[in-house]
Write a structure and sequence with these properties.
Distance between the termini: 18 Å
Structural class: mainly beta
Number of strands: 9
Radius of gyration: 19 Å
Shape: globular
Number of helices: 1
Largest sheet: 7 strands, antiparallel
């Protein structure tokens, strides 16, 4: 199958706290969108004292983080801002779903690791959110 080019605009981010039965859109995303810092794999050093070259083997994979920014209004109850605060406060592991402009989706599991607010002249007040992913982030096939 040939590569289908999917533009980055119009994509959406949703979160589910009930195992995927219902999703809430994390609306009011701003900035350049959302990003995953990539997966990495740990390694075990298998070098023996007598070896001339170091050797290693791949071990567990780390799914990384999901980072995004959204407009912040402490009184907003419509765009998921209160939900994000609640998820951080309760340390809830939930499902995060990317919805691409062509309606295809990818789902990852994770919890909110950090949130911050940013106040800069000439910009919207915004919230930076980092979600720590856990388990397979969907980059592998079975």
């Amino acid at each position: 199958m040939a590569l289908e080019k999917i533009p980055s605009y119009g994509n959406k981010l949703h979160v589910s706290t009930d195992g995927g039965s219902n999703y809430t859109e994390v609306a009011a995303l701003i900035g350049d969108g959302f990003s995953n810092d990539g997966v990495t794999r740990d390694e075990a050093d298998t070098t023996l004292f007598a070896d001339n070259w170091k050797t290693n083997l791949p071990t567990q994979a780390d799914p990384g983080t999901l980072d995004f920014e959204c407009a912040y209004d402490p009184n907003d109850t419509e765009t998921g801002g209160h939900l994000l605060s609640s998820l951080f406060g309760s340390a809830t592991v939930c499902l995060w779903k990317f919805e691409f402009i062509d309606s295809s989706t990818e789902v990852m599991e994770g919890w909110i690791k950090s949130m911050s607010r940013e106040f800069k002249i000439g910009n919207l007040v915004n919230r930076k959110v980092q979600v720590r992913l856990t388990g397979d982030p969907g980059f592998t096939t079975t």
